[in-house]
Specification:
By secondary structure, the protein is an alpha/beta fold. It contains eight helices and nine strands. The chain has a seven-stranded mixed beta sheet with strand order 3-9-8-4-7-6-5, sandwiched between helices. Strands 1-2 form a two-stranded antiparallel sheet. Helix 7 links the parallel strand 8 and strand 9. Helix 3 packs across helix 4. The radius of gyration is 17 Å and the shape is globular. 37% of the residues are buried.
Length: 218
């Protein structure tokens, strides 16, 4: 992709290809981060080269946006969180007037130092070539694309969750670990979006995540 650094026409062609196909974008431009690699003498910055199951997950999630809820039972090293966040970031860059919300049980897990949801999105953005990155504004718990009006916002599980207007989609991360079983969050977000992504490792049966799993949300 060195040609794109100075060839405006080629940049536009690549940009259009990325806008059409999330997997072309991910496998060409997205980097992930795994700090465990440092102990092995390897770089922690890794290209996001997708496996077939991840390809299927990207397409299935993208198809669900605006239509239905999705439940993901996480397991280690499958990349579930990176897939969800990268899909939001891709739509933030390439699609107009998108509105995403990322939710976790504590504000520091949404936007804080270390392994937070926004830190992953920031890492993806920093890895993009300058010509692809839109003019934007980054604030606490908010990322605005000034060119197309799309935004990604964050919230922790307070009594105000779900009061921020309508959303294109919402990521509810580690839902099974929410205080009180997550029942209040499930109720408060029901009318805010057609697509809530319940992304979590299982944690027993006395919680809303398990109830959604039994309901058949997939």
């Amino acid at each position: 992709m060195s040609k794109a650094a100075s060839d405006r026409e080629f940049q536009q062609a690549v940009w259009s290809a990325c806008a059409r196909d999330v997997l072309f974008y991910v496998n060409t431009f997205v980097w992930t981060y795994d700090p465990r690699k440092i102990s092995d003498g390897m770089t922690p910055k890794l290209p996001f080269i997708t496996y077939e199951y991840q390809d299927n997950a990207f397409y299935a999630l993208d198809e669900a946006v605006g239509k239905s809820d999705v439940l993901i039972e996480k397991s280690r090293d499958m990349g579930a969180s990176w897939i969800c966040l990268t899909l939001f970031q891709w739509r933030w860059v390439f699609k107009r007037m998108q509105s995403f919300m990322m939710v976790s049980r504590k504000e520091g897990l949404v936007d804080g130092a270390g392994d937070s949801l926004f830190s992953h999105v920031d890492f993806i953005n920093k890895g993009l070539p300058k010509w692809m990155m839109p003019h934007h504004k980054r604030m606490k718990l908010k990322l605005l694309n000034n060119e197309n009006g799309s935004k990604i916002e964050g919230e922790s599980t307070t009594e105000n969750i779900g009061r921020g207007g309508r959303r294109t989609a919402m990521l509810i991360d580690e839902f099974s670990a929410f205080e009180g079983g997550g029942w209040d969050v499930l109720s408060a977000t029901a009318d805010n979006t057609n697509t809530r992504i319940f992304n979590s490792t299982p944690n027993g049966t006395a919680n809303a995540f398990y109830a959604q799993r039994q309901k058949g949300t997939a």
